[in-house]
Amino acid sequence: MKVEGKRRIWKDYQKEIAGDNYFYVRSCVRQNFFPGSEKTFLRILQDELHKDIFENPSHTTCSGIGYHSDIVPFETTMTMIARQFALMTEAGYKNLATSCITSFGLYTEILETWHHFPDVEERIREHLKNATGREFKVPENLSHASDIIYKFRNEIADKGKYRLINHVTGKPLRGVEHIGCHYSKMFPAKGIGGAEYPYVLTGMIEEWGGEVIDYPERRHCCGFGFRQYLIQANRGYSIACSKKKFDSMRPYKPDFILTNCPGCPMFLDRWQYVISEMEGITYGENGFGIPVLTYEELAGLILGYNPWDLGLQVHQIPVEPLLDKIGILYDRSSKFLGKDGKFLGKPESPAYIKFS
Amino acid sequence: MGHLYEKLTKDVRFVEGLKACLNCGTCTAICPAAAFYNYQPRIIVDILQSHDDEKIEALLKSETIWYCGECMSCVTRCPRGNAPGLLITALRSLSQESGYFVESEKGRQQLAIKRTVGEWILEYGYCLFPANILPELHPEQGPIWQWEHTNIEAVMERLGANYRQTGPGILRKIPRDALDEIRKIFDETGGTSRFEKIEEFSRKKADELGINLDESLNCDYIRHIYRVNEIDHTRSL
Fold first, then answer.
1. Do both A80 and A203 map to the same domain?
2. DSSP state of A24
3. How far is CA A54 from the centre of its chain?
4. Which of A91, A185, B76, B84 could form a disulfide with B41 if both were Cys (CB 3.0 to 4.6 A apart)?
């Protein structure tokens, strides 16, 4: 088959993704806001794909949010990451799998820095040895968790219970994909499909039966901007970036937004709520917002997992309109139950945007 | 070549980020910060390649260097291989090390980030921790976070976390010896020193401005830098 246009560009940027034996490092943002996604990632790898993935409880933050809000020096962050490499080396692993895009970008940047400036690597080795007594080897393979789900997208489709097809009309559901900036904007060769036409999420959507929408502000940042969100006085920047994207995608009527970065799904979810409160604008159908999902949440839905096991109840923008289009059977009454079945109360409904 | 420029050249990010800029403005065209703030990365790169120490000092004291969101969109598009976003990281580091950051409203905000994310890294081993993400400081998180925050242990248990427990898993309690190691890393690599400088320069500035700054997050100085824009930073349309 002759491959042309954007497909050809995607093909120019391929990377090797390890197929097994991963040392897993978690994400600060995802553990706080999307714990179900990290749980689902391990469930898919271990229970569905029977892969070996190991976590050392002593691994910590890479300090990336502190680094990119500039309170933590580069030297410190490099040594924090060198410590993660040491834990990987000590456990006998060579393939590092990161849950976080900020971490993935920093790990990539640091490995590139050490490649070009070997004296910096030597200095960091000394720092780590002095501070902890540890030594390390650099990973042979560095993959983001979305790379790994992309690699196994065919297997997930084969095992899947559902497809991204509107079960009433029979037509493919249409999604927009939002790639975390630090996935490949600095080092395009380290991301599937590069920086301009990343294929990592598009590949999942297409393999699982859906269609991807191209829209003008597809590559614009969600607006996290680190200090631009962390400080309340700066949050105008953050919401303005997300609004620019929503206004741009709105005419294409997406059924869902798919993301691969820890912060992006939170901001694209929460800012829809805030825009509705501030301006009475809603971007989805019938007064709802556009559901925003992580790639593990979408993979879990395809595999037929209970939406409330995936953590979809902690989204401010309800995902039920998407579940209904796919034809997923789920129990509405168990959305806000604890593990023991106890009702935890229902969150207050927003003033404008529909919540149920 | 002045001493500030020379200091910048010791930062590997500066060496990587500045080749030669032709002032085409592509970075400004693609920049999310330039769409919102009165900000042009093109001008920053041009000042840096002028090697002019007076202008660099003014930059280090300015609001401008704090507008970038470090998304690095500029890096992808620069036709000459420059990285304005990386240059910003080098400038912000020097601004804090030299104490110039307290001369700008946006720069002074660094203390609030140090007192939250910075302290949480050392205390919990995470940049963020749910107990500290208070709904009253985060109205944008909506009623869903209010619900989750109220029921945090039950929600985390439902979603398979190992919240504040030993062993592996989501939001596990990171072992004491691991926290001791990261504190030693901060001591060894300049992280602790950076924190101390942020505190010290902020205290002097608070005295100069006559605003109360104590150890708490609720003191007048922290509340002010966290919440208030005294000047308009946004781009004129």
1. no
2. E
3. 20
4. B84
